[in-house]
Amino acid sequence: MVLLVAISACWIGLLQTSIIPRSHTWLLPIYFIISLGCYGLLMVGVGLMNFPTCPQEALLLHQDIDEAKEFLKRRGVDVGSD
């Protein structure tokens, strides 16, 4: 909330002064939202690139899948040949 108030105060201050042309100042909130969206996408991308691999967990998951297939086969469900 404090950050929003600070950004709003800066924006209103820029509107009152003539440091930045008035036509550009009205677009600052849109630029800010676009910048936040780009930052969010960047953080998701970095998180995906650094996603840790867990070979031990993958083995456990594969075992659980095999157990589930065997359980379903005993119940008469066709689970395919995989």
Automatic annotation (TrEMBL):
Q: Write down a Pfam family by its short name.
A: DPM3
The pathway it acts in is: Protein modification; protein glycosylation
User: What job does the chain carry out?
Assistant: Stabilizer subunit of the dolichol-phosphate mannose (DPM) synthase complex; tethers catalytic subunit to the ER.
The entry describes its oligomerization and partners as: Component of the dolichol-phosphate mannose (DPM) synthase complex.
User: Localized where?
Assistant: Endoplasmic reticulum membrane
InterPro entries from the UniProt entry:
DPM3 (IPR013174)
Q: What keywords sit in the KW lines?
A: Endoplasmic reticulum, Glycosyltransferase, Membrane, Transferase, Transmembrane, Transmembrane helix
**Entry GO CC:** dolichol-phosphate-mannose synthase complex; endoplasmic reticulum membrane
Q: Which domain of life is it from?
A: Eukaryota
What biological-process terms (Gene Ontology) are attached?
A: GPI anchor biosynthetic process
Which segments cross the bilayer?
A: 27-51
Q: What is its main location?
A: endoplasmic reticulum
Family, as annotated: Belongs to the DPM3 family.
Q: What name does the UniProt record give this protein?
A: Dolichol-phosphate mannosyltransferase subunit 3
Recall the GO molecular function terms of this protein's record.
glycosyltransferase activity
Membrane topology listed for this record:
Multi-pass membrane protein
Q: Transferase: present as a keyword of the record?
A: yes
